[in-house]
Amino acid sequence: MNHSAALLCAVRGPIVLITLGSLLTVHKFGGMSFWVSWPILIIVLGVLKLLEMMAAKSASTGGNLP
């Protein structure tokens, strides 16, 4: 595992917690219901997973993405 993939693994949890806290804050102050905005968590997790896979692939191909 290269440094980029390791960094993405290390920040995945904090990014998800920050996103969750932001969504709950917006819900509390009446901006948008949490039950409407919770899919943003799935989107954030998907983007992080894609970035992690791209970093791992770039490490296995020597830094060159096809």
Can you tag this structure with a few keywords?
elongated, 3 helices, 66 residues, mainly alpha
Outline of the structure:
With 66 residues, this protein is an all-alpha fold. It is 79% helix and 0% strand. The protein has one domain.
Structure description:
This protein is mainly alpha-helical and 66 residues long. It has one domain. Helices cover 79% and strands 0% of the residues. It is elongated and about 50 Å long.
Stretches where pLDDT is under 50 for at least 5 consecutive residues are: none
Cα-based radius of gyration, to the nearest Å: 15 Å
How many beta strands in the DSSP annotation? 0
Order of helices and strands: HHH
Largest sheet: none
Q: Assign an overall shape.
A: elongated
Number of helices: 3
Distance between the termini: 19 Å
Please state the average pLDDT score: 86
Structural class by secondary-structure content: mainly alpha
Number of domains: 1
Give the SSE map.
Blueprint: H1 3-28, H2 34-37, H3 39-60
Helix pairs in contact: 1-3
